[in-house]
Every structure is written in C-alpha cells, then in structure tokens.
Amino acid sequence: MTPKHTPGEHIAELCKTYSVSRETLAERSGVPVELIRRIEEDGHIPDLAPLIKISRALGVRLGTLLDDHEELGPVITRAGKAGDSVRFITGLPASEESKSAGAADDPGHHGLIFKALAADKNGRHMEPFIVDIEPDAEQKKSTHEGEEFIYVISGKLGLEYGTDSFVLNEGDSIYYDSIIPHRDYSADGKVVRILAVIYTPV
Description:
Elements: H1 7-18, H2 22-29, H3 33-42, H4 48-58, H5 62-66, H6 82-85, E1 86-89, E2 112-116, E3 126-133, E4 147-154, E5 157-161, E6 164-168, E7 173-177, E8 182-186, E9 192-199
Antiparallel strand pairs: 1-2, 2-3, 3-9, 4-7, 4-9, 5-6, 5-8
C-alpha cells in the first residue's frame, strides 16, 4: 500500500487547519523554518527526530504524519510486505524505482530506510519499523521525547548514546531514553537491519 500523502503534505494541511504559520511551527517545534519548507514543498524526508518535534508542536501523533488509512482492529504486516505499507528514506523520498529494491540493491540512496510495520493502526502510541542502515549513511545525533527499543536482525550496529558508544551484534537489543542524543550507524561497513520501536508520549 503506497501512502497517498507525504509527511510534508500532512504538515501543510494541519498547519492550514490550525492556522499555524511556518514561522510559528518552527518556533514551537525548534525545527528550522527552511527544513520545514523543504519537508512541505520538496517532499524532503528528514530523520525521525524533526518529524517527532513537529508532531508534538501540532499536538498530533507521529503516526498522523505518516498515515493514510487507519484500522481500529489489529494490523498484521506479512513477511516481506513492510515496504508495501509505508517506506521512506531519511533525506529524500523513496522513488518509484526504489520501492521494490532493498537497501543493499539501491546504490542511489544513502541513508536510513524505514519500513513501517503498523502504519494503519488507529491511535497507536508506538511506531515499529524495520530499518536498513546503509554503510555510508550520514546521520547526526538526534534527540526527542520518548523511548526506543532496537533489536539487531542482521549486521553489526554502532550506537552513540550521549558520551557512550556501543556495538551490537545480530540478536542483541537495547532499550533507551531517546531524550539523550543518539546516533545509529553501521559498525562494519555493511548494511545493518534492525527492528526499531519508537514510543513518544502523547
């Protein structure tokens, strides 16, 4: 299922509904005006931290910026179908050509590829993703309210957390407060695949 609207379109629509200017949103969220403009007008997909801050400033769930269809009952994502629901690459929108390709088979994209596992679940407070971290992904430390749980499916994950650094191997997991600046990266120069569950308080 391909989302009908980008996060930027959702943000623009919410701002129009609530009569919130781009400058006011930037002030409330702490996200630069130029980044909000790029998200809204260019379809730019930033790291999750700015989206979380924007959703908080607008008083909506992070999922509201990612969703198109909402299901009241349980949502099942079958094996291999995560990319069919919501898939985006931090830094740029996923192209039509890349939607059927895996991270390792898509040399044109360098970043973190998120595949949402429960994008249709109504009123959810957790955001589960399968994330492919490419070896040359460029990601700065981010900080936002909430908590995160990460399980390494394959590869070797490097994690900078505050002043500490960790290396997690396949089968390892970590649970942390995401208000502490953190950054995920490939620790061995290969694609890393993780299950990431993000919780943000309402």
